[in-house]
Amino acid sequence: MRTRFRHLVAVALAAVTVVAVSACAAIPTDGPVRSGQTIKDESLSGVDYRPDKPIAGSDQTAILRGFIAAGTGAADDYAIARQFLASGFAEKWNPRRGVTVRQGSPAVERVGERELTYTLTASATVDSDGEYTQAVRPTSSTLTFRFTREDGEWRIAYAPDGIILSPVSFDSVFQQHALYFFDPTYRYLVPDERWFLARSSTSTRIASALLAGPADWLQGAAVSSFPEGTQLSLNAVTIDNGTALVDLSSNALRASSEDRSRMREQLSKSLASVSTISSVAITAEGAPFSVPETGGAPEAVQNPDVDARPLVDDDGSVGYASSGGKVAELGNGLGDEIAGLKPSSFALSASGTGAAVGNEDGVFVVRGRDHLRVDATPGLVPPSIDDVGFVWVASAKNTRTVTAYSATGATHPVRTTLPSGQLVSFQISRDSTRALALIQTSDGPSLYVMGVVRGSDRTPTAFGPPVRVQAATGTAVGAAWISDSDVASVGQTPSGPEIVRTTVGGQSSTLPQPDGRATTIAGGSGGSMLLRMSDGSVVQSTGGGWVTTGVTADVLGVQR
């Protein structure tokens, strides 16, 4: 049921149909539960809204607007909002089923003697598991509210579940938190961004969501170390002098020593965004839970970084460029081999020993001084390479199949469910768990992220369902992974290049416009972005705009 609900929300937003859904990950309601201390659910954001209560003599419109406004007040399980509801309905209404972020000024219209509609423009939703979905194009949605008289006052007899917030209110009362899972080899931590109310119960909601597993679109691409069925045993994660006390159900006792280390790592990383938590202690059904301090699983890599220097092909020199134009060429003959292929695009493996190269003759796998052409199909987009060494190749004319080639040229076609259009770019994330696809459609650029599912030998076998994220407008130029959770896209508009940075599972922002025309985008070090401009110059993003690197490039390469 949870999978079905998430799928409907994602489809609705992608099709520009927005529905009212929820805002907080639900605490488990089944399985063995031990009673714990009562926790006051207080605001942690510094903003604790105190919405107005119903005013005697208010008409239906005033009651409706007051009820919507009271959605900012989560104290005592939205006690003030429930005062606007009829006594028989107040306890049935579920504010945690969803939050819709609205834009502009909603309209209230009467459709019956005791019935009003509330029409809003929604820009995003957050579901009951904390998953944020941004509407690619904000659109109108109409909700119905019914009224009754109680003690001479109008009250709402029916309202859709969930709350409605303005962008300002949403940013004040909700906070973004990354849940951390692993890639199937446990080498990398994989973020799964969620949004929860900024209250003292946040640590409980983070832990509950973590135990529930990764989002549906990441299933198969990211894994959890917790044994199946593990839940919170107590009704809350408590915090004692900076230590989060997490009591798990008996299922956790099935975990191996390595998995216990990983369980602690997942909890520690996921709860690190809570400012009041500095460490984690785990128990199982109230009893000590042994976690090895040494000799357990090695710590996974979080947010793998790249060399701070741009990777370029500049006048036949392939390597890392410094300001002033000096290029430190790739060693072991790799730089010379790439340069000899006269690349139009290339991507370097994390080890620096292999590369995927695209040119007018197709795509090549390069290892040291050897190269192998794996695909000669005309119209291929720039290739990508993952940490296993697979080179990913796709045709601009076919969004439904991407082929992964091994170092020996063995083909592994992988089907997608991407929409039709012209594929502009395709890139694998630095942790090799997700793919980013930019498509030019008749409605403009569309940007999608998909999980990469692999077999036991790490051969790619499938993609998860695509999740649409905000793309730059205009004519699509390219897209790139900027960090483990952020992507960026470039579109050329009449006024110049538009660059949009988006957190997968979060919000987007449009960067200041650089001078000139951008031809290529690549992820830089520390979450920065690199652009190659049409004059060959390479610029880098800063907090407030773009700065020149002093580097020129015939081709800007992709590091991973």
Which runs of at least 5 residues are low in confidence (pLDDT < 50)? 1-39
User: What characteristic shape results from the CA principal axes?
Assistant: globular
Distance between the termini: 37 Å
The neighbouring-strand order within the major sheet is 4-3-2-1-5
Q: What is the helical fraction, as a range of percent?
A: 10-25%
Tally of individual helices: 7
Please identify the structural class as seen in this structure. Answer: mainly beta
Fraction in beta strands: 35-45%
Largest sheet: 5 strands, mixed
> Averaged pLDDT, please?
91
Rg, please?
26 Å
| Number of β-strand runs | 36
Kindly list the characteristics that best describe this protein.
36 strands; mainly beta; single chain; five-stranded antiparallel beta sheet; about 15% helix; globular; disordered N terminus
